[in-house]
């Protein structure tokens, strides 16, 4: 199969998943006081779930620009690792323009699919998988922002928990398998709750940065993992 | 208005640069194991801190948020796909909103 079509095919399930999650993001935007086109603009330019949710929260709370930058940096720094891993898999047809374009599509899910491809990655494959995921993400945001207000209030409130449900679905399974990840998840949650209760003046963005950095440093100190060995193990599976 | 557009631009540019720099320019691997380990744990820490306690306010109503959270944790524990967990959490929260007032 041609790489572009293969990318589209591999991306269909990602797009369907994105559609419903971004629907609840669209609702969140409108509930936070943003307009429909602003919600769509965020999804078109960002293509990320956690960073967008935190960003909208900070915009609604009148957060400082620097705080917004720091929050995005901490939340999305994981993409740097994925980006690094994918750069090792890119085939020789990736030159500067192709790299600049394809790197826009490095999300958790696209990375997950692309990194287990048996062959080196071609630019067209990355364009295909990114395009269809991007369409799902954008369409869902638009539908949620535009039609979310037409739905009964109970239903839109209930959809507000969908994104958090997705985050739990990302962290719980690895936390079952790894003591280190479990410890990091529990510590981060505990610090987050503590800051919420005791530091009411502190903005959500800084609380998030503090909680996640402390938890990750403790995890790295107490539960170091040999990532190279782990990657080899995953490839062998 | 301008503030919102500037905010969106900051979000987009920051996010893009993080993704773009390593893929475009990095040729060597990070060798410092401690830094690698911190980066390895960061996503789980961020997602956890972002979800808890915020998930308990997510539906603007505590009982339904708890119902949605419990369903999400159980389904996630058994490894259900992201989309299933996300929708089931919403479904459970919606049901709780409808049913809870009948009993209390």
List its salient traits.
heterodimer, A: 237 residues, mainly alpha, globular, disordered C terminus, B: 104 residues, 4 helices
What does this structure look like?
The complex is a heterodimer of chains A (237) and B (104). Chain A has helices at 3-31, 36-46, 50-60, 65-76, 78-89, 96-102, 108-115, 123-147, 153-159, 162-177, 179-198, 204-222, 227-236. Chain A has 237 residues and is mainly α. Chain A folds into 2 domains: 3-170, no CATH class; 178-237, no CATH class. The longest helix of chain A is centred in the N-terminal third of the chain and has 29 residues, at 3-31. Chain A starts with a helix and ends with a helix. Chain B is mainly α and 104 residues long. In chain B, 78% of the residues lie in helices and 0% in strands. Chain B has 4 helices and no strands. Chain B has helices at residues 2-25, 33-51, 62-77, 82-103. In chain B, helix 3 packs antiparallel against helix 4 (82-103). The model of chain B has no long low-confidence stretch (mean pLDDT 90). At the A-B interface, helix 1, helix 2, helix 3, helix 4 and helix 5 of A face helix 1, helix 2, helix 3 and helix 4 of B.
Topology diagram in text:
The complex is a heterodimer of chains A (237) and B (104).
Chain A lengths: L2 H29 L4 H11 L3 H11 L4 H12 L1 H12 L6 H7 L5 H8 L7 H25 L5 H7 L2 H16 L1 H20 L5 H19 L4 H10 L1
Helix pairs in contact in A: 1-2, 1-8, 2-8, 3-4, 4-12, 5-7, 6-8, 10-11, 11-12
Chain B lengths: L1 H24 L7 H19 L10 H16 L4 H22 L1
Helix pairs in contact in B: 3-4
